[in-house]
Amino acid sequence: MSMFCYQCQETAKNQGCTIRGVCGKTDEVSNLQDLLIYLLKGISVYAVKAKELGISDEEIGPFVAESLFATITNVNFDPERIEKRIKEAFVIREGIKNRFLEAYRAEKGEDFSGELPEMCTWYSDDVKEYYLKGAEISILSTEDEDIRSLRELLTYGLKGIAAYTEHAYILEVKDDEVFDFLVEGLAATTDESLTADDLVGLVMKCGEVAVKTMALLDKANTGAYGNPEPTQINIGVNDRPGILISGHDLKDLEELLEQTEGTGVDVYTHGEMFPANAYPAFKKYDHFVGNYGNAWWRQDKEFEKFNGPILMTTNCLVPPKDSYKDRVYTTGVVGFPGVKYIPDRKPGEQKDFSEIIEHAKKCAPPEELESGTIPGGFAHEAVMSVADKVVETVKAGKIKRFVVMAGCDGRHKTREYYTKVAEELPEDAVILTAGCAKYRYNKLDLGDIEGIPRILDAGQCNDSYSLVVIAQKLAEVFGVEDINELPISYDIAWYEQKAVAVLLALLYLGVKGIRLGPTLPAFISPNILKVLVEKFDIKPIGNVEDDVKAIMAGE
Ligand code: SF4
Ligand code: SF3
């Protein structure tokens, strides 16, 4: 075994990737990422201790968030970029260590002599050692299967929170309590004295902070770009060259749209950038044509046909084929060896997209994949503006059930389940969705109920908060105290770690009876699964017919 990773739904044999990631991550990168997380934990141990003495370091929260984000599935495959982060982590760790030791001496009148875990002290400037150390301190070095399971569940939840908080931070919205929890949670994973119950408590707190972070991001996005509006989004193409932008970063899109205006180059979204087409701030651009293609995992075929350059702002990047690799650009936390990188914005300036724009001008227009429009833009504000009508329709028995089918899409054939559920649900059921899971059914013509579309798409996985707001609002208007009394069922598809954060958020809010698929996470041990089943009645997806029946019966 040369690596170990089981953080995503597509992990090998639903047990763990041990030689090379199914996602394409090499053992080298996997071990470097493990070492990076190890050092983030070392930083966090010092940060928690320093905070007890009233010391904080503004640099740590954003660095930890960005670094965790870089380790999410399909974000960064570039060993050099991870090595660079490891070196930065040593510097940051040294800084907080010294400040802590100084403050300790000042307060106690003596030097700190307590024990520290090895992630606080291990150092090397030899890159070859990084690889070896990463392999040595792998996830499997925690021997107790249940403790390992809880530590990883917490870590993956933190990765999801890190991504959301990073997106908000880019839009200059932050909450120090979220940054504090990132370090509190990471430090807790090093604490050998914590029991499984303690860790379950922290996992629940992770859900609480995930709700808070998603609310923060919602505020950041709507504050900057307005509330998404119900929009028929074009899925066809124009006859001019274009740039395809994917991932979740709206700030990158904003600046790209501004810089491409009047250049003769169009802009299209791919994958999780699709919902951007419903924001008033972006809709105003005539050269913002619409969405091209489907969910992330189909990019190898679709990028080939797009003909123009592609900008990957976050996950999910699939190792690019040679046929279009020279047209792929990464930015932010994304990286891939041999692929061009657009550096971060300097303070007070925009990112410089001139190279990708010039590249686009030399390319042929995109090949048409499909034509027509599909609806988007049903975030909380839009749904709430028709709340009266929704309530009326439910009370009249014309809507029997809402089915939350949010989450991720992925390659597994078993995900056809979600298409079939969407098709099989009776005509009085409405699907609430967010995330790239929607691509399994958002091009089906499911019609509407009294003008309310049967698929209400709240946006990116980052916008799952909208679904929480909608559920809470429905609870209010129906006068129910317990969210589980609402006619809402949850049939969630997961793939990467942001979905883990969303799942923990739902558990924290007390949602019971969630169906999770296409497989349960490999990192959940049998005992921890038992806890989740007992406390929250979580269940794996079953067959379509039985599940649809059970969902409609509120089971
Ligand atoms: Fe395997 Fe998923 Fe980890 Fe990639 S992210 S190495 S596919 S478990
Ligand atoms: Fe999709 Fe990667 Fe998760 Fe944002 S783009 S939902 S998988």
Major sheet strand order: 4-3-2-5-6-7
Molecular shape: globular
* Beta-strand content bin: 5-15%
Rounded to the nearest angstrom, the radius of gyration is 23 Å
**Count of domain modules:** 3
Q: What is the SS-derived class? A: alpha/beta
Q: Count of helices?
A: 18
Question: Describe it for me?
Answer:
It contains 18 helices and 16 strands. It folds into three domains: 1-141, Substrate Binding Domain Of Dnak, Chain:A, Domain 2, CATH 1.20.1270.20; 231-361, Rossmann fold (3-Layer(aba) Sandwich), CATH 3.40.50; 385-552, Rossmann fold (3-Layer(aba) Sandwich). 45% of the residues lie in helices and 10% in strands. The protein starts with 26 loop residues before the first helix and ends with a helix. The mean pLDDT is 96. It is globular. Helix 1 (27-52) packs parallel to helix 3 (79-108), helix 2 packs across helix 6 (176-188) and helix 14 crosses helix 18 (544-552). The protein has a six-stranded parallel sheet. It has a six-stranded parallel sheet with strand order 13-10-9-14-15-16, with helices on one face. Strands 1-8 form a two-stranded antiparallel sheet. It has 555 residues and is an alpha/beta fold. Bound molecules: iron/sulfur cluster (SF4) and FE4-S3 cluster.
